[in-house]
Design brief:
The protein is α+β, with helices and mostly antiparallel strands. The protein is built from twelve helices and 34 strands.
Length: about 600
């Protein structure tokens, strides 16, 4: 007797479990019970699990009967003519959806030629195991799984044409690649997904070699001439927004050029780009600190008396200005209203980004790296036929990562470029490497993709043969211009008097416990002292009772609130955070005393 569970609840038992399960499946295929049902028979513990619950991942497979898939040529022809649809195939029981449990009872063949009497299902296509971006990786079956994963992730971060109506959109930090291209080595998914409508990379010549060690640790080296001809060039868009808010008492914000009597008025230079309406003009070259939308607001705190006083508190300045580290050209200005009916002003700023040292590039195989050097064209190595690579890739990225598809794509790209055609690199169903090598040989090149190279600086022939080919490279959104950050002194927090946090707030760079240890080990005690006084403060301490004393700046005298004036009061340096915790202790009713000792 086999126990039967429906959605994990015991519902009864059956005598002949295998027969019961096969009957259920037959009924499901002919459509007499719901297609959402899945059944799994666990032989070891003799239990049947029937599942109809929500939230299961299910995938479609072709049913195989007597070593023959139920999907025939006739069905394929009907599909091509649009006589039948996918849902018809599911209704007829030719294709069924399996969940993770029922898959345990199934043996799935990859290809029709692999079917044996034991097989129950056939993959529609092996590519179906991938998501959209993973299936765009060419020759993915020659790769380690983690690298296919990384290649998939990297393609999501690549710059391209994200939307064709970008000119009228106000999206938060958006990048556009100027000269995006279709890949030479493509997969079937490039055609299915209309990739040519939104390409996100460029075909370039890649040589695998080292160059003075500047492509160590996954870095890549770019040809300066390629960059000047437009390789990896993109534009960064960022909007600034402001609205005229309404406040109680009928007061309202005003978008205008602030008057000089406004509280917090910056300087005339900061407002130099504003027109009469208080909004920056298009194509203005703005930089950090420049005001793009001038605005004044009513005073923050209005007492009941002040509301009726005509000369009450002057308005305060609340303009929108370019943040720390930002610059660009005003691209587009939108004047509209928001849902409350308040006037809304949006200004989009654009900034051209030319590849520089520190920008991140990647192939479609998870071989990511930052630019380590941009070399003048005259110093780049070149092949016998005079080809100068656009990018030099380090050979050390291949052995440990085993991304063989990276190498095959270079061969395929080379053949595609020379023969003037696209190469099919669909995972599990690509043009075989042997054929590509033969075609490369027939085109007058060595079949293994290597060529004799010359040193660009000395003109000598390089001893090793260099592997070179065409490849689809992507520029990722991680640009050094958005991340570079440094500071000396700057803004501090109100509560702790320690530097603010984050690049946007012009924050400090934290020296943590472990970094401190490196200085200790180095014996750099003075540097350590300097690092740790970001919130240094001088506090008067009463030597009699150990409490913090009072320093009266106007009268020029010090006294203790407990002991009076006739005591020794000494100024000591402490961290403001320490003074803060002493105050916190006081609020808990804990009295603490500082006992001072002489340094000498």
């Amino acid at each position: 007797m086999a126990e039967v569970y429906l959605n994990s609840k015991f519902v009864g038992s059956v005598d002949d479990a295998p027969n019961f399960v096969s009957r259920l499946r037959e009924e499901r295929r002919i459509g007499s019970i719901t297609a959402n049902l899945n059944v799994y028979y666990n032989e070891k513990i003799d239990e049947v699990y029937v599942e109809t619950s929500k939230g299961r991942a299910r995938r479609p497979l072709i049913v195989v009967k007597d070593m023959q898939p139920l999907l025939t040529e006739k069905h394929l022809k009907q599909l091509e003519k649009n006589e039948i649809s996918w849902s018809d195939l599911v209704k007829q029981g030719i294709i069924e959806y399996l969940d993770a449990a029922e898959e345990e009872n199934a043996l799935v063949a990859f290809f029709e030629k692999d079917i044996t009497p034991e097989h129950t299902h056939l993959e529609i296509t092996p590519l179906a195991m991938f998501g959209l971006t993973s299936s765009l990786v060419p020759y993915g079956n020659f790769n380690q799984s983690t690298r296919v994963n990384a290649g998939s992730k990297n393609q999501k971060q690549a710059l391209g044409l994200y939307s064709s109506n970008f000119a009228v959109r106000m999206d938060m930090d958006v990048n556009l690649l100027h000269y995006s291209q279709n890949p030479i080595v493509k997969s079937i998914m490039h055609d299915i997904s209309n990739y040519s409508k939104h390409p996100a990379g460029q075909n370039i010549v890649v040589a695998v070699m080292s160059y003075k060690g500047y492509n160590m640790e996954d870095a890549v080296i770019l040809n300066k001439a390629s960059v000047e001809r437009g390789f990896g060039r993109s534009t960064y868009f960022r909007p600034c927004t402001s609205e005229e808010l309404r406040y109680s008492g009928g007061l309202i914000d005003q978008i205008c050029i602030p008057d000089k009597d406004v509280k917090g008025y910056k300087s005339e230079r900061d407002y130099r780009f504003l027109e009469e309406d208080g909004i920056v003009y298009p194509e203005a070259q703005v930089a950090e600190g420049d005001v793009v939308i001038g605005k004044t607001s009513p005073p923050r705190f209005l007492s009941s008396l002040e509301e009726y006083n005509l000369a009450a508190g002057t308005r305060r300045e609340s303009s929108v200005n370019m943040k720390h580290g930002e610059q660009g050209v005003v691209d587009f200005i939108l004047l509209t209203e928001n849902e409350e009916g308040n006037r809304l002003v949006q200004v989009r700023v654009r900034d051209e980004r030319v590849p520089e040292i520190g920008d991140k590039f990647t192939s479609r195989h998870g071989q990511k790296g930052v630019v380590g050097l941009i070399v003048p064209e005259a110093d780049m190595p070149f092949s016998v036929s005079g080809i100068i690579p656009d990018l030099i890739f380090s050979p050390h990225g291949i052995p440990s990562r085993m991304t063989i598809s990276h190498l095959i794509e270079m061969l395929g790209g080379k053949v595609g470029a020379l023969a003037g055609r696209y190469i099919n690199g669909t995972t599990f169903d690509a043009e075989p490497e042997e054929k590509i090598r033969e075609e490369l040989k027939s085109l007058g090149f060595r079949e293994n993709g290597v060529e004799t190279f010359y040193n660009g600086i000395t003109g000598e022939v390089l001893e090793a043969k260099i592997f070179v080919g065409n490849m689809y490279y992507l520029k990722l959104k991680h640009l050094v211009a958005n991340k570079i950050h440094s500071r000396a002194r700057g803004p501090v927090q109100l509560l702790t008097r320690q530097p603010t946090e984050g690049r946007a707030k012009e924050g400090g760079l934290r020296l943590g416990e472990m970094e401190k240890d490196t200085f200790v080990a180095h014996g750099a005690s003075l540097l350590l002292k300097e690092r740790f006084d970001s919130d240094k403060t001088v506090v008067p301490i009463c030597e009699n009772c150990g409490l913090i004393a009072i320093k009266d700046e106007y009268k020029g005298k010090k006294y203790c609130s407990v002991c009076g004036e006739n005591v020794e009061i000494t100024d000591i340096e402490i961290s403001y955070a320490f003074k803060l915790i002493l105050d916190e202790f006081k609020s808990l009713g804990i009295n603490q005393r500082l006992q001072l000792k002489s340094k000498y």
